[in-house]
Amino acid sequence: MNATRQALIDSMKELLWLRGYDATSPNQVLDHCGAGKGSFYHHFKGKKALAIEAMNARVDELIADFDLIFGSDLPWLNKFQQYLLQPRTGIKGCPMGRLVSDPSISDNELRTPIDRYFKHLLMHMSMTLSQAQQAEQLDENTSPVILAETVVSAIQGGFIISRALHDDQSVNSACLGVFSLLKGLARQAEPMAVAG
Amino acid sequence: MNATRQALIDSMKELLWLRGYDATSPNQVLDHCGAGKGSFYHHFKGKKALAIEAMNARVDELIADFDLIFGSDLPWLNKFQQYLLQPRTGIKGCPMGRLVSDPSISDNELRTPIDRYFKHLLMHMSMTLSQAQQAEQLDENTSPVILAETVVSAIQGGFIISRALHDDQSVNSACLGVFSLLKGLARQAEPMAVAG
DNA sequence: GTCTATACACCGATAGAC
DNA sequence: GTCTATCGGTGTATAGAC
């Protein structure tokens, strides 16, 4: 892979996190990585094409981190504990979540990587919760799908509060709060009933 | 109050919700309300000044709605029920929450109305929760401040998920989920009927 | 108070030399 | 593959007539 091409992707990845899509211009990307306009339009059809590659690279990164925890054989509650209690820098925002407010993201091609990221989180969290219910380790009155949505929302919303109040810690409070609520639903597995 | 001036504020309010701050240009505001450039810069120092007035007007509106519920004498859980189970149009996003991702919002003057909105929600929710604890109607193991942050985060994050998945209902699922979790912490010092 | 004309910077993209 | 020059369009704001 060409080094300039990779540098363009890396710079776009960084600037998307820092300023979002609409507010990031090709010129800013070029300044950031020291490339020239000619390289940009040689390697990519345009801003949108580069952004999609950069977003997909970021999603791969984030999903790999997520899978380290949710793909492990930790007990279900410990998975959520590890994921939710990771320290986050609230004001920076979520590299994916912050993009959805950009007007251009209503374009479906631009939205695809973001959709992929959140669908992955939601699906694997709700699978974990569903298995916990089957093992009688989780209260059965709440739907795993809705519960997963609530957890992901608490994280994303925590970033919003952090930026709104200019306070890096708000997101961590929100994550702690939703973890406490989740912990309240944990049940000790009871001995398996024997049919007959 | 001059009618043109008011029309400019109303149009900016609308466009801020629709497109955010950075992506809304003075020309778009003028097209939206039919005013001319001269009127704009006669009544307002510039885009930023108009946006601040429009944001403050929106916050007043949202806070009035919020206070209708949280300023009432409903039981604490019913307040959260009414507020959280209001149907929301997820893809439109929260008129305040969507603004925090705009790079320009790191400017403190622009952030002030947003800060005021969220501080109001958080303070009054945590007061309600604190009083519920004193009345022994709410589990005492979780901090009211953290719980309030979790509730507001679930709403805001729900909007993010809605926009990410292009699904109006995600935000309502997230709100339902956090309400269920909250309901699980209710204690019956006195008889309380709660549907849902 | 409102209008039109204008200024200047930056946007995303292209052309063509090397 | 990379560079510089340039394009048409738009953003924010100002000037000055009426």
CATH class of the domain at 54-183 in chain A: Mainly Alpha
Low-confidence stretches of chain A: none
Q: What share of the residues of chain A does DSSP label as strand, in percent? A: under 5%
Report the largest inter-chain contact: A-B, 55 and 56 residues
Under CATH, the homologous superfamily of the domain at 54-183 in chain A reads Tetracycline Repressor, domain 2
Mean pLDDT level of chain A: 96
- Put simply, the count of helices of chain A is 8
Index terms:
homodimer, 196 residues, mainly alpha, Tetracycline Repressor, domain 2, 8 helices, elongated, DNA-binding
Question: What does it look like?
Answer:
The structure is a homodimer of 196-residue chains. Chain A contains 8 helices and no strands. The first copy, chain A, has a domain at 54-183: Tetracycline Repressor, domain 2 (Orthogonal Bundle). Helices cover 65% and strands 0% of the residues of chain A. In chain A, helix 5 (76-84) runs antiparallel to helix 8 (170-183). The first copy, chain A, is mainly α. The structure holds a DNA duplex (18 and 18 nucleotides).
Question: What's the arrangement of secondary structure elements?
Answer:
The structure is a homodimer of 196-residue chains.
Chain A: H1 3-19, H2 26-33, H3 37-43, H4 47-70, H5 76-84, H6 108-134, H7 144-165, H8 170-183
Helix pairs in contact in A: 1-2, 1-4, 4-6, 5-8, 6-7, 7-8
The first copy, chain A, binds a DNA duplex (18 and 18 nucleotides) through residues 2, 4, 25-27, 35-43, 46-47.
